[in-house]
Specification:
alpha/beta, six-stranded mixed sheet, 10 helices, 12 strands, binds adenosine-5'-triphosphate, binds magnesium ion, transport
Length: 287
């Protein structure tokens, strides 16, 4: 078994990643009844997380996380502050380097990749951040174009057409030439979503996309996300405290605490009949 460096003081042993067929079979068995995803015969998870551990210095913040996400599935991750939700998302697109364990996208292990391969991965895994992260000096349209031209090497006309299509989809075609400072927070976040979708990623990660917004702007962003979930077939992993969204839109809800996946299942099951007392307590505290 490979021993990987763990923090400064310890190492942690994890088994090698499972062979794809075996992993898919085990995941299929395990996930029956936990998700409203419609499985197709022979389907493999699009994201596979096996024995993921992450430490910062000597603090272990993800502890043997195992999770499969299926193509087109919408997974909502809930949990108290500091439970490791962002860290897990950031490991999936390698903004953080896992301390041990495996993450596979379409059965391709993404850990221990070269810089060039990591860039390819960043194309395949999109992320929408709490703070939008738009380029302030570029217009909405230019923000949606830049990844397409720089990373996907699309020509300008093609990137512009795609940008206008995606801005239209989030209701902002008429704001295409506005800069971020001229847009509301909700509009900026919708531009950020359009930018991520324009890259046509395999998986789109959302880290509390509405938490920085004034309450009256939350709805518009959630509507855009709901439309994506229901009509685009996009695979989405969403960290959010929006329980209504989770209940209505998620195929599966995952509850994390202290770096551990404590409970997961169908939203109605986890919300109405949580098995774990900590899940019940957390959900009770935010209702
Ligand atoms: N770069 C870092 N260096 C050191 N510790 C970190 C770093 N990033 C996160 N942590 C720690 O890891 C733990 C998990 O943090 P994380 O941001 O993943 O939690 P979270 O569930 O997203 O919380 P929140 O709901 O507040 O966003 C926390 O204890 C945090 O302090
Ligand atoms: Mg977070």
């Amino acid at each position: 078994m490979p021993a990987k460096k763990f923090g400064h003081a310890r190492t942690i042993d994890v088994p090698p990643a499972l062979p794809a067929e075996e992993a898919a079979r085990i995941a299929y068995e395990a996930d029956q009844g936990l998700t409203s995803h419609h499985f197709t015969p022979g389907e493999h998870p699009i994201v596979r997380i096996e024995h993921l551990n992450k430490s910062f210095d000597d603090t272990l913040v993800l502890k043997d996380v195992n999770l499969n996400v299926w193509p087109g599935e919408v997974v909502v991750v809930l949990g108290p502050s500091g439970s490791g939700k962002s860290t897990m998302l950031r490991c999936i697109n390698l903004l953080e380097t896992p301390s041990a364990g495996h993450i596979l996208i379409e059965d391709d292990e993404i850990t221990n990749k070269s810089a060039a391969e990591v860039n390819k991965l960043r194309r395949d895994v999109g992320m929408v951040f709490q703070q939008f992260n738009l380029f302030p000096h570029l217009t909405a349209k230019e923000n949606v174009m830049i990844g397409q031209t720089k990373v996907l090497k699309k020509d300008k006309a093609e990137a512009e057409a795609e940008a206008m299509k995606q801005l239209d989809a989030v209701g902002l075609a008429d704001r295409a030439d506005f800069k971020p400072a001229q847009l509301s927070g909700g509009q900026q976040q919708r531009v950020a979503i359009a930018r991520a979708v324009a890259m046509h990623p395999n998986v789109l990660l959302f880290d509390e996309p509405t938490s920085a917004l004034d309450p009256e702007l939350v709805r518009g962003v959630l509507d855009v996300m709901r439309d994506l979930a229901e009509n685009s077939g996009m695979t989405m992993i969403v960290v959010t405290h929006e329980m209504g969204f989770a209940r209505d839109v998620a195929d599966r809800v995952v509850f994390m605490e202290e770096g551990v996946v404590v409970e997961q299942g169908l939203p109605e099951k986890v919300f109405d009949h949580p098995e774990n007392p900590r899940t019940a307590e957390f959900l009770g505290s935010i209702k």
